[in-house]
Fold these 4 entries.
Entry 1:
Amino acid sequence: MLEMRPNCECCDRDLSPATDAAYICSFECTWCADCVRSFPGGACPNCGGSLQLRPTRAPHKLAGAPASTTRVLSPGCRETAAPGSVLGGVPA
């Protein structure tokens, strides 16, 4: 089962388990759509893997399988972004 991390690892934006704007790689690195647009080739800056839209979890399933509350941040994310890009509304 997916962890459903609660935030973008780059800009720390909140990402609800119901959002259709979260992206993950095969290691479940989690990113918002704005940050993904700034990554060269649209690849995960942590592992280089492809990023896919994260599936949502039905609200009635969250009671028995809650989303993670552990926030994860990738300190080198802003350096990986394309020059001049905007990450989460903040120039990189």
Entry 2:
Amino acid sequence: MYRGLAPFAALVVSLCLIALVIGFFIFFVTWIFAVSDAYKMVNKQNDRVEKKRNGASA
């Protein structure tokens, strides 16, 4: 539940700072982190499903 709260808060802060140049940097760093974290979580979930499927069919 709290996993998405930190990136959301960082995006809100970066949008507030967008008038300054630092806001763009914070926004893109947060976006890249969120995308990579989502990719890792999907791979982890896929591994769990694959293990469960292989264990059930054996």
Entry 3:
Amino acid sequence: MPNVKCDHCQNEFEINLKTRTIERDIELAYFICPNCKHEYRSFYTNEKIRTRQDKIKELWAKARRTLNENKLKQIICRIDELVEQNKEEMSRLRERYEASN
């Protein structure tokens, strides 16, 4: 993974993505600058999002095995729908949990 530069101390480091539970089924993915310890919040997930992520992985595996062009288009269309649903849900979670900070 490429290095990133901390906005606070300018230290370059490799991202070590971590997760922690915020409440019930809400998880935060984040990383920390090893030099100044500034926390960067990447994204939030809930059970619905994680279930969709698993379904997306299954669909990509199915797409790689699919020889029928029309079936492949249907699978990719479904993947796009699930990705869009996840983006919307993640945005709602970010607004909810970062507005309270």
Entry 4:
Amino acid sequence: MRPNGPLGANRRASVVFTAVTAALLAVGSAGCGPADPASGTPSGTSAPASASAGVLTIRDPWVKAADRGMTAAFGTLVNDSDADVTLTGATTAVSVLELHEMTMQDGTMVMRQKQGGIVIRAKGTHVLEPGGDHLMLMDLRQPVRAGDEITVTLTFADGRTQQFNAVAKPFTGAQESYAPGHGGPAPEPSGQPAMSGQPTTGPTS
């Protein structure tokens, strides 16, 4: 016999509430389970792909555009490591490449090959710039025109190497003379060296 009155109504409501709660719990448990691997849904944040840091960071590398003869590459060498780094050489496909410096000799600023390499101090920087240390491209095998990218390979005292690309930009600057006997061309009668257009401040945009 079905009970009547408030007691019976309460009992029926309790049964309905229990059934609905059980259904909701079942749906909730399914929703909190692990994602299907085949669905492509990431299960967490993945680490970004790592890239080789290299020996140095080279900031704003550029090379002076030139049709023939010689030119130079510049930039800022950044050493983020805890030890000094010594750059001992460099190569490129378009010419022989030497490490050069500018120095005073007999009252005249002259260019010569840098002996002992270029030292970039720990946590320091070293600027390659017109009028200072630079990478000298000797006797170009092909024109280096504005917009060209020249790949340069650096060699360090510990045997490590590193490549970077320098974009060629047009620039006309002061002429610079070679120190006698270091292997470069002799100055022309006008007092200007055989090389042309060595930049003094930076490239034009």
